[in-house]
Amino acid sequence: MKKKILALLLAVFMVVSLAACGGDAGQGGSAPADTDQNAPAAPAESTAPAGKVYTVGISQYVTHDALDAATNGFIDAMNDQFGEDGWKPDLQNAAEDPATCSTIANAFVSQNVDLIMANATPALQAAAAATGDIPILGTSVTEYGVAFGIENFSGIVGGNVSGTSDLAPLDQQAAMIQEWYPDAKNVGLLYCSNEANSQYQVDTVQAYLEDMGYTCTQYAFADSNDIAAVCQSAVDASDVLYIPTDNSAASNTPIIDNICRGNIPVFCGEEGICAGCGMATLSISYYDIGYKTGEMAAKILTGEADISTMPIEYAPEFVKKYNPPMCEALGKEVPSGYEAIG
Prior knowledge:
Elements: H1 2-38, E1 54-60, H2 65-82, E2 87-93, H3 98-111, E3 115-119, H4 121-130, E4 136-141, H5 144-147, E5 161-165, H6 170-180, E6 186-192, H7 196-211, E7 215-221, H8 227-237, E8 240-243, H9 247-250, H10 253-260, E9 266-268, H11 271-277, E10 280-283, H12 286-301, E11 313-314, E12 319-322, H13 324-330, E13 339-340
Parallel strand pairs: 1-2, 1-3, 3-4, 4-5, 5-11, 6-7, 6-8, 8-9, 9-10, 12-13
Antiparallel strand pairs: 10-12
Helix pairs in contact: 2-12, 3-4, 6-7, 8-10
């Protein structure tokens, strides 16, 4: 009997012991949860949807050094922001044809791209005409108010358009001509009549030059077919030529150079044209404004910025540069403060 009671007591003791062990295991199992609750919070997730690959349509008006540099800057900025696998560029070139710009823009709309980067004014105007919904960023555009006919432009286009400008101070470009050729009388202003921003630049520079006492005449060509004849007329009647940031001129610098080299000094609105046919320029870095456009695009795509309130961005600095072969051809000494284009 005593053995039965003892066995029963041992059995009870073992049950209680197992229950106690089970309780300890449960407490031990809950410990990691307590530890997790006290751990630092995980980093915030990106505002971009997980696994999202952005499609960006890039419309470049024509091939020349300045626009190429802006496109390269944009692509580098996007790669830096998203990596090469985080976005897909669709690069199209309009070959200096405004109608092709419209075709490209409409194709981007049909593809429902996430954003359009329009490189140069005709590409920007075509994209804006094609869609009011897809975000559009321009670059290599001189004056957005002129491009869209906005009076008293505030610096914000509004709607689905913003971007960067390649405008250098036009008063300083006019002053550069006076610095080099104070005794010149007649200045010819050579530009493409199909580019609204070129008209704006020559009108503005002409006003500054006339205030300085120069006589100015505008020489407009429609396209590459008549640029040689118009340029020759300008050379025959002028002491100095000025060419603004003009895409048609930039893509036809060999024609201009063939007529002007050794005959007349040419001052340009940007470095690419100057390298091809000019003597001196006050220029910007097109790569830099392209890169800035890419940074703006990243903010729009990830929701960090609202394109409708984004102001137009401008180049942070301007550099005086000269073209050594052109100066040598005319035997012209370079004023101080200029860097050689090389």
